[in-house]
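Hey all, quick one. A colleague (J.T.) asked me to put the S-adenosylmethionine job into the tracker so the inputs and the structure tokens live in one place instead of scattered across chat threads. No bug as far as I know, just bookkeeping. Sequence used:
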Amino acid sequence: MHDEWLNRWRERRIGWHEHEGNRALKSHWTATGRNVLVPLCGKSPDLMWLCRQGNTVTGVELSPIAAIEFFEDHELRVTEKDGVFEALDEPLRIVVGDYFAYDETGFDALYDRAALIALPASVRPGYAAHTHKLVDDDAFHLLVTLEYDQSRAAGPPFSVGKGEVTDYWPDLRRVESRNDIENSPPKFRSLDALYEVVWLGGA
Ligand SMILES: C[S@@+](CC[C@H](N)C(=O)[O-])C[C@H]1O[C@@H](n2cnc3c(N)ncnc32)[C@H](O)[C@@H]1O
């Protein structure tokens, strides 16, 4: 599975990447002054946006290409040691490696867009359990997931339903659901609907 992601980055098959960042993040995120964890972060400009809100930001990402490109895209001065890419002038870093081997704890905010839904059903319970270990229970949480008819199209990204999300995070509230079929990859275009769903929790 790791090779597939690393190959995607090498071959630039990164259709999930949002050049302008995520719309739902900008409308729903309210936390400032937090220590934010962004699992499976890619080179998302959302890292920069979260930092601009006065947060300290840690992304975790398998591909060094993503990390290098993130700092280039944002023209940030960076140092790298043992796979940790750290901005010199901003409280922002990307830890390159397997998220499941990353063990720093004490985060008081979580941002997950296209991380939970990037993983197959067999891996998702382990992802949620691991994230619970790293992130405080009362942390601010914002998750952006997708819901569509999984029997009519294959992931990734996978459809993750309401029941599954609340099994993992019982306190999360489903605050928005928007049919985003027009912006979806071609393989989903035969579906009637594909919902981008926003989940919020904590304070
Ligand atoms: C669908 S992309 C989403 C990226 C980012 N969250 C965004 O919104 O642009 C999933 C990312 O997770 C990374 N990834 C997959 N498995 C991982 C793992 N076990 N540890 C760390 N990163 C991983 C992939 O390389 C890819 O960049």
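Adding what we noticed when we looked at it: The chain has one domain: 2-13+27-201. Strands lie at 35-39, 56-61, 78-81, 84-87, 92-96, 107-113, 135-147, 173-179, 195-201.
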